[in-house]
From TrEMBL:
The lineage of its organism: Bacteria, Bacillati, Actinomycetota, Actinomycetes, Kitasatosporales. This is Tryptophan 2,3-dioxygenase family protein. InterPro entries: Trp/Indoleamine_2_3_dOase-like (IPR037217), Trp_2_3_dOase (IPR004981). Residues 125-136 have a biased composition (Polar residues). Residues 125-146 are annotated as: Disordered. It holds the Pfam family Trp_dioxygenase.
Amino acid sequence: METPYACYLQLPDLLGLQRPRTPDDQSAQWADERLFITVHQSAELLVSQALVDLKRASQQARHGHGPAAMTGLRRVTAVICLLEDHLALLDHLTPESFASFRPLLDNASGAQSSQFVELFQQITAPDCPSTSNPDPGTTPGAHEAGERELAEEFRALRSAVTRWWTRHLLLVERMIGNQVGTAGTSGLAYLRSQIDLPPHATHD
C-alpha cells in the first residue's frame, strides 16, 4: 500500500523513469548509465522550476512588484547554482565508463534540451526585467533604487549561468576531450560558441 508521501510525489512513476539501455547483467555499466540518466532527469526538473520562477518574476516586475520579483530572481539563481553543483555528480563517472555506454545514447545530446535552451535564451537576453508599472505610492528615487537592485539580481543570475557553462565545459573536456559531440556537433567548440567566455576558460 502506498503511503500518502509516495502518492503525493507520485514516486512509483518517478522512480520508474530511470531505464538504462545497458543489459542488467552488465551491472557496473548499468549503474553508470543509470547515474547519467538520473542526473539529467533531475536537472530537467530543476530547470522546469527555474522557468516557472523566472516567468513569475518577470510578471511581478512588469506589474511593479519589485521586491517580489527580486525574490523570484534569487530563487532562479539558487537553482542555477545547484545545477552547477549538480554537475559534480558526473565527476564520479570516468571517461572510460561514459565511453562504454555512450553509443547507447544514439544522437541524444543535452544541447537538444528545449528547457535549457529557453532558460538560457531568457537569461542572456539584452534586457533584464524592469518595473515598468511601479506602485503608485513609490517615489521616483525609490523606484530608481529598486530598478538598480533588480538589475543587480539579474546580473548575479547571469554570472551563475556563466559559472554553470564553465563547469559544464570542464566536464565535457574531461569526458570526451576534442571528440565530436553526441549529436554530431563539434563538441567543445560548439559549446564555447554558445556563450561569451574567455579564450582559455576550460583550462582555468
